[in-house]
Amino acid sequence: MAVHSTSRLCEFAGQIRWMQFLRNCKGTTAIEFAMISVPFIGLIGAILESGSLYFRSAQLQAATETASRSILTHNAATGLTYQQFVDQYLCNGSNLSVMFDCSKLAVDISSPASWSMASTGNTFTPAPRSSVIAMPAAGQIAVVRVVYPASVIMGFLGGSALTGGSFGQIRNGQTLQNGAWTYMIMGIAAFRVEPAGS
């Protein structure tokens, strides 16, 4: 009989220890922080990446419009190459900040026959930098597209791991270029070239 009462006493003592463990609130803050830190860091990263993309997109658009003005007003020299256009009009120090690597800019200057034939997509094969730009004549339509591959900062976050799914990366809006995932941001200007001498 004494053995039976001893085992009950041990069970009761074990239950008391388990209840004391459940009542112990030490370390609760650390556990709660660990639970919310991954989504919180992901949210902060997404905010930073989105802000960076919007800022660079706006800056690239402004630089494209400024550089296109040289074509609109016939200030660009005849025989201008794409490299010279990038150096003199896009990356002259005042248009694009240090957030851009000018060697990665892809430029396309075209002169479609009509507005309906104008291409405004960000996927095109740029002409070699050494080739001469076929400048649109006065009265012609000109479309200037400048594309930049912006690197993905928080690419390791994403997927549906927090909802029970497999961990994967969200690739919406990203393009695989030279083995790296990038956002292709674009600046575009479309206009009819002014008559000469105006």
Shape: rod-shaped
Contiguous uncertain segments of 5+ residues: 156-168
Share of helix among residues?
A: 25-40%
How many distinct beta strands?
Answer: 4
Helix/strand/pairing category: alpha+beta
Oligomer: single chain
Give the helix tally. Answer: 3
Largest sheet: 4 strands, antiparallel
β-sheet strand percentage: 15-25%
Strand order of the largest sheet: 1-2-4-3
Succession of helices and strands: HHHEEEE
Mind telling me the C-alpha Rg?
Answer: 30 Å
Features:
3 helices; four-stranded antiparallel β-sheet; single chain
What does this structure look like?
15% of the residues are buried. The protein has a domain at 58-192. The chain contains three helices and four strands, in the order αααββββ. The protein has a four-stranded antiparallel beta sheet. It is α+β, with helices and mostly antiparallel strands. It has helices spanning 2-23, 28-72, 82-90; strands spanning 106-110, 141-151, 174-177, 180-192.
Spell out the blueprint of helices and strands.
Elements lengths: L1 H22 L4 H45 L9 H9 L15 E5 L30 E11 L22 E4 L2 E13 L6
Give a brief description:
With 198 residues, the protein is of the alpha+beta class. 38% of the residues lie in helices and 17% in strands. It has a domain of 135 residues.
